[in-house]
Write a structure and sequence with these properties.
Layout lengths: L9 E5 L22 E3 L20 E3 L20 E3 L22 E3 L20 E3 L12 H4 L5 E3 L20 E3 L21 E3 L22 E3 L20 E3 L20 E3 L20 E3 L22 E3 L20 E3 L20 E3 L26 H7 L4 H6 L9 H14 L2 H24 L13 H4 L20 E8 L2 E4 L7 E3 L3 E9 L5 E9 L5 H18 L5 E5 L5 H6 L5 E3 L18 E6 L5 E5 L11 E5 L3 E6 L5 H17 L6 E6 L5 H6 L21 E4 L1 E2 L4 E3 L5 E5 L5 E5 L15 E5 L3 E6 L5 H17 L7 E6 L5 H4 L22 H8 L7 E2 L13 H13 L1 E10 L2 E4 L7 E3 L3 E9 L12 H9 L2 E9 L6 H17 L6 E6 L5 H5 L6 E3 L6 H4 L4 E7 L6 E6 L11 E7 L7 E7 L5 H13 L6 E6 L5 H8 L11 H4 L1 E6 L5 E5 L14 E5 L3 E6 L5 H20 L5 E6 L5 H4 L14
Parallel strand pairs: 1-2, 1-31, 2-3, 3-4, 4-5, 5-6, 6-7, 7-8, 8-9, 9-10, 10-11, 11-12, 12-13, 13-14, 14-15, 15-16, 19-23, 21-22, 27-28, 35-36, 37-51, 40-44, 42-43, 44-46, 48-49, 53-54
Antiparallel strand pairs: 17-18, 17-20, 20-21, 24-25, 24-26, 26-27, 29-34, 30-31, 32-33, 34-35, 38-39, 38-41, 41-42, 45-46, 45-47, 47-48, 50-51, 50-52, 52-53
Pfam families: Gelsolin, LRR_1, LRR_8
GO molecular function: actin filament binding; phosphatidylinositol-4,5-bisphosphate binding
Protein name: FLII actin remodeling protein
Length: about 1250
């Protein structure tokens, strides 16, 4: 493997996260003779590897967070070692070799988080040490000699030890910039040495028992000190020495006993972060407003109230974070909301009553935390002053124009523009001219001339060109060249320094060629050559050539010529571009390279897509993960299968999905979806996906896996987790290579498009860490992927492929591990699965039913498509005319004449049973029904005369069409539909083979007209379930007959037994049962005085034919009701309405964004309560009022657009002299004037699934 030849050129390598606990440290490390830095963090190393001794040029070695118990070994032989990091191990004083402290070049030493009891012996011998970290140990004392020799220290961290004092020689560290002494018991240490450290920038004394008496009285000498942390101490006030720090930027005084701040804090003019949490402050001084650079202010857990925050706090113009939780605030000053840059405002655990209205003006605010304020009432949001939404013109005239209305109609609506009369205009102008005095025009002209002469005189005195001297420019001078941006192609310094630059064309774009390849041209490539030279006059000049290889493709030739001209325009050069062809170069071109031009076979691929047959490697993957699928490659053998998982076997044109007997169904589904993506993105949809279950495998499957194993058993532990992928970034320099690791950082994109990064060790990588200018290696233990960016240099690509081969062979891996190449834009699906949410985005409507989407972004994205489009045509159409009775009766007869047979079924329990014939036409709101209808249909006959009668009978059978109607009650669950789909529907299909059976699903009051015709207007809907009717048989029942728009839409629906629901324009049926053996009860048909005679006849017919014959039947006209049974059965006499004019005028509209733009559609006249969509806006016009009904899931955008549509509708009605008032209605709070427009209004119910 060393034959690849890249190991000697590797200068840096990061193997962190590998598993070397069993002595599996790679021996090939010894071949990295030029290695300068090596990281072996978190690799489970028990000791220092012996192979490191051969790395004679190693300068930086990191061994942090391992299990090292000693550093004895070969470290002393690394004479070039400059930095040694052994943080987070199990090192003791006896396990540290003395000879490592005699390394002359050692400048960084990190032994933190170990088990050291004292400072290592002879540490003072490392005189060149610059960084020393001994934190998180058990050191009790520091020898005096240590700081006598280590006078060049820049960074010293002794925090989290057991120090009680510091040596006086600490004052010798005059170059020290960072001193961290936190979490030590330095009660009796005065820290007088601090004044001698004039270069100090960071000082941390957290939890060191500081008081006002054991701090230096003055720190004036520390002119560079920027960061001070004295938190978790016993300070009763701000130490006076801190006021003498002019460069202070960050100050942490939290967790002390400070009760008051001095007015001297205005001395911190550069302060950016002030932390005063967990103190006893009751107020802030007014001088705090002078800290104009302050960005972060933390005041949590104090005793601040409204008076304690100065009103001048608005002067903190750069304030971004204000934390004041757990205080006594009832209000906050309005001036705080004038800090325009405020991003985080935390006021939790206070006594807030309200907030200033100006809080809504904080446009940059990302976090507003007001939790645990029980009496808080948020101020109302400011009224949006924007006139239009989505840039939609909601004016009535514009909407009528879009709806195709005539100009006369638009003019009548107030939008017509008056016709201009040119003759009248001329007469008016002539009249004005005749009436004006003659000298008035002359005076105006004279005044304008005088003003012009004065301006010319002033310009001449100033030496400027006068108006009389101005000349017009020629037409070619007026022309301006279009401004083209070449910054994405050529950098700013191109052509500004004498020398030669060469670009080669790749993917239609010029890519800069490395200087070492100047004069060496690939035959299949095209190049652009720029020579910049200095003329004798001192100005720059240029020569531009574009070179064409003999084997180059057409796209490269064209792009070379185009970009050569672009380069000339970018430089503003006057020279022409020169075409050079391979083998026929000019002398000027050869002189650029001093006649040293050579040709190389090959070149980059064409920018055009080419169709190639992909050679697929047969791989077996285990599918791991609940939410996101993670594929882990396994050995291509039957023993790799595990019954607890699903596996994906990819053979190229056949993809097998194998589900183990103990695997979850979701894992199989996710594996299937993954296979679909592979087939779509990598196989052009030509692969076949085969689903297999354990125990039902095919012979081909076992043949691929090398035969069927004797048994498939679990062979992985229950807590198995796949190895964490590691991402390496390939670095290329002058004669060296580097392979650093990319830290796992989950990039989160906020709505303000700012990127922030936080560390989530357990999360997968995200796509955004891949840079198109770089090349990466992704090590997944069983696979090594090489990802190549589109704009990465050619040398970097070649080096990455070689490094990938070395990395594959260097670390211990299973035998089935392979190296896979991925080009940006054509990545393998397996590679994408290693990243979080790559290719998992679905196209959704961010407006419909959502208030959290970034509406402004969507508007901007769609402004060239359909943003700004609104369809309100339905508002201007006339109301649908009711169907005449004669036409309805004709349709009823035609549809029943075509009906050959009808069979009825009812769902009882979990199966469908036949419905008794005497219950035909009776429906219950909790039940589901199925009706099998067979219709005669007209089919053209192609038979010749003389055919046999048997063939004619066969033709008659083919003339029947089967339609299945599924009716679901309003309160019935969807289980009935599922039961029908998986059981009864299949039985029907088996009964009528060879014919296409149509299935129509309907819900209560949303039935098909043809279906309703089969019941001949005798359609009765009861409450509850059919099998529970005996329990309700002793209660009176009231049914309301209503016809909506057509006689076919006549229904008797049971309503609450309430006399106030009667109406003089309708017919009702009242069923009153008796507790008597002689008569079971009586059924009344109540006919209103203004009821339709046809409906009265229908009600009488229904009680005689569709109700129990044992009941007494009686028809009552309004006003003739008997008091003994009728009023007693209905619940007594109450006033009721005597008119229903709304029935002739009611209209229902739906406002929605379902079409991708805002549109209004009208429901038919046979609408019902269930037509009210919970995520839309409904408009109901009852003839007197217009109701705007708002669902609970309606988005704010649809609400605003719906309000505009209602206003347009009302304005349109006013233009027709029909006045309406607008009333807003929320779901669940509908008034009676609204509910009366719906037949049998009831409560909204959530249907169980």
């Amino acid at each position: 493997m060393a034959g690849t030849g890249v190991l000697p050129f590797v200068r840096g390598l990061d193997l962190s996260g590998s598993d070397f606990k069993d002595g599996q440290f790679p021996e090939r490390i010894q071949a990295l003779s030029s290695l300068r830095w090596l990281k072996l963090n978190r690799t489970e190393l028990p000791r220092v590897p012996e192979g490191i001794s051969s790395l004679k040029k190693l300068e930086h070695l990191s061994l942090s967070h391992n299990k090292l118990t000693n550093l004895h070994g070969s470290l002393s032989s690394l004479q070039c070692l400059r930095a040694l990091v052994a943080r987070g191990n199990e090192l003791k004083n006896s396990s540290l070799p003395i000879d490592i402290f005699h390394l002359e070049d050692l400048s960084v030493l990190d032994l933190s988080q170990n088990q050291l009891d004292e400072v290592p012996a002879e540490l003072e011998m490392t005189r060149g040490l610059l960084v020393l970290n001994l934190s998180n140990n058990r050191i009790e004392t520091v020898p005096n000699q240590l700081f006598v020799n280590l006078t060049d220290l820049l960074y010293l961290d002794l925090s989290n030890n057991k120090l009680e004092s510091l040596p006086p020689q600490l004052r010798r560290l005059v170059h020290l910039q960072t001193l961290i002494l936190s979490n030590n018991t330095l009660l009796h240490t005065q820290l007088r040495q601090l004044t001698a450290m004039s270069m100090l920038q960071i000082l941390h004394l957290r939890n060191t028992q500081r008081t006002l008496s054991n701090l230096p009285t003055s720190l004036e000498a520390l002119t560079h000190l920027e960061d001070v942390d004295i938190s978790h101490n016993d300070l009763s006030g701000v130490p006076e020495c801190l006021y003498t720090l002019p460069a202070l930027k960050r100050l942490n005084l939290s967790s002390n006993n400070i009760s008051e701040l001095s007015l001297c804090i205005d001395q911190w003019s550069r302060l950016e972060s002030l932390i005063l949490s967990r103190n006893h402050l009751t107020s802030l001084p007014t001088s705090i407003s002078k800290l104009t650079r302050l960005r972060k202010l933390f005041l949590n857990s104090n005793k601040l109230d409204f008076e304690g925050i100065p009103s001048s706090i608005w002067k903190l113009s750069n304030l971004e974070q204000f934390f004041a939780s757990d205080n006594n605030l009832e209000l906050i000053p309005e001036s705080l909301c004038r800090c325009a840059k405020l991003r985080k405002l935390v006021l939790s655990k206070n006594r807030l009553i309200t907030l200033p209205d100006l809080v809504h003006y904080l446009t940059d605010l990302e976090v507003l935390d007001v939790r645990d304020n029980p009496n808080l009432i948020m101020p109302p949001k400011l009224v949006d002053q924007a006139k239009d939404y989505y840039s939609i013109d909601f004016s009535l005239q514009n909407q009528l124009r879009l709806a195709g209305a005539s100009p006369a109609a638009i003019a009548a609506a107030g939008g017509g523009t008056p016709t201009k009369d040119p003759v009248a205009r001329k007469l008016r102008l002539r009249r004005l001219r005749d009436n004006a005095p003659d000298d008035q025009a002359e005076q105006v002209l004279k005044g304008m001339s005088d003003v012009a002469q004065q301006k010319n005189k002033k310009m001449e005195e100033n030496g400027e060109m006068g108006y009389t001297e101005l000349k017009g420019r020629r037409w070619e001078e007026v022309l301006e060249k279009p401004q083209i941006n070449y910054s994405e192609i050529f950098t700013e310094d191109v052509g500004q320094i004498p020398g030669v630059l060469v670009w080669h064309i790749e993917n239609f774009v010029p890519m800069l060629t490395d200087e070492s390849f100047h004069g060496r041209f690939y035959k299949a490539d095209c190049y652009i050559v720029l020579k910049t030279f200095m003329e004798e006059s001192g100005s720059l000049n240029w020569q531009i050539f574009y070179w064409i290889g003999t084997d180059s493709s057409l796209d490269k030739m064209a792009c070379a010529a185009i970009h050569a001209v672009n380069l000339r325009n970018f430089l503003g050069a006057e020279s022409r571009t020169v075409r050079e062809e391979m083998g026929d170069e000019s002398d000027e071109f050869m002189a650029v390279f001093e006649d040293e031009v050579s040709y190389i076979e090959g070149g980059t691929a064409s920018g055009f897509y080419t169709v190639e047959d992909v050679n697929c490697i047969t791989r077996l993957y285990r599918c791991i993960g609940q939410h996101n699928v993670y594929l882990q490659a396994n050995a291509l053998h039957g023993s790799s299968l595990d019954p607890r998982y699903s596996f994906l076997l990819d053979t190229g044109l056949i993809i097998y999905i194998w589900k183990g007997s103990q695997a979850s169904l979701s894992s199989k589904t996710k594996a299937r979806l993954f296979a679909e993506k592979i087939n779509k993105n990598e196989r052009k949809g030509q692969a076949e996906i085969v689903l297999l279950i354990q125990g039902e495998e095919t012979e081909e499957f076992w043949e691929i896996l090398g035969g069927q194993p004797s048994a498939i058993k679990p062979h992985l532990p229950d807590d198995f987790h796949p190895s964490k992928p590691r991402l390496f970034k390939v670095g290329l320099g002058q004669g060296y290579l580097e392979l650093p690791q990319v830290n796992y950082k989950l990039l989160v994109e906020h709505k303000n498009k700012k990127i922030c990064a936080e560390l989530f060790p357990q999360q997968r990588l995200v796509q955004s860490v891949l840079d198109t200018y770089n090349v990466y290696l992704l090590d997944c233990q069983t696979d090594v992927f090489v990802w190549i960016g589109r704009r990465s240099p050619r040398l970097l690509r070649a080096a990455a492929l070689k490094l990938g081969q070395e990395l594959l062979a260097m670390l211990p891996r299973p035998s089935h591990a392979v190296l896979l190449r991925n080009l940006e834009g054509t990545e393998m699906q397996v590679f994408k699965s290693k990243f979080k949410n790559w290719d998992d985005i679905l196209q959704v409507d961010f407006i419909h039913g959502s208030q959290k989407g970034d509406l402004a972004l969507k508007i901007k994205r769609d402004e060239n498509k359909e943003a700004g489009k609104a369809d309100l045509c339905a508002l201007f159409c006339p109301r649908q005319a009711p169907m005449p009775l004669s036409e309805a009766e004709q349709l009823l007869e035609e549809w029943n004449e075509d009906l050959e047979s009808i069979e009825s079924f009812l769902l009882e329990g979990r199966k469908f049973v036949r419905l008794p014939e005497n219950e035909f036409g009776h429906f219950y709101s909790h039940d589901c029904y199925v009706f099998l209808c067979r219709y005669w249909v007209a089919v053209e006959s192609h038979e010749e005369e003389g055919e046999e009668e048997g063939e004619e009978e066969k033709q008659q059978d083919e003339d029947l069409q089967s339609v299945v109607y599924f009716w679901q009650g309003r309160e019935a669950s969807n289980m009935g539909w599922l039961t029908f789909t998986f059981s009864l529907q299949k039985k029907f299909e088996s009964l009528f083979p060879g014919t296409k059976m149509e299935v129509v699903r309907m819900k209560q009051q949303q039935e098909n007209l043809k279906f309703l015709a089969h019941f001949r207007r005798k359609f009765i809907i009861h409450h509850g379930q059919r099998r529970a009717q005996d329990k309700r048989g002793q209660q009176p029942c009231l049914y309301h007959l209503r016809t909506n728009g057509s006689a076919l839409c006549s229904r008797f629906i049971q309503i609450d037994t309430d006399p106030s629901l009667l109406n003089s324009e309708f017919c009702f049926i009242l069923k009153v049962p008796f507790n008597s053996e002689d008569s079971p009860g009586i059924v009344y048909a109540w006919i209103g005085r203004a009821a339709d005679p046809d409906e009265a006849k229908l009600a009488e017919d229904v009680i005689n034919s569709r109700f129990d014959s044992a009941y007494t039947k009686q028809v009552l006209n309004e006003g003739e009701e008997p008091e003994n049974f009728f009023w007693v059965g209905i619940g007594g006499q109450k006033p009721y309405k005597d008119g229903a004019e709304y029935l002739k005028l009611a209209r229902l509209f739906r406002c929605s964004n379902d079409k991708g733009y805002f549109s209004v559609s009208e429901k038919c006249s046979d609408f019902c309560q269930d037509d009210l969509a919970d995520d839309d806006i409904m408009i109901l016009d009852n003839g007197n009022q217009v109701f705007m009904w708002v669902g609970k899931q309606s988005s704010q955008v649809v609400i605003k657009l719906g309000l505009k549509a209602v206003q347009v509708y009302i304005q349109h009605l006013r233009s027709k002299e029909a006045k309406r008032k607008l009333k807003l209605v929320r779901k669940g709070n509908e008034p009676p004037l609204f509910t009366q427009c719906f037949h049998a209004w009831g409560e909204f119910r959530t249907v169980p699934e």
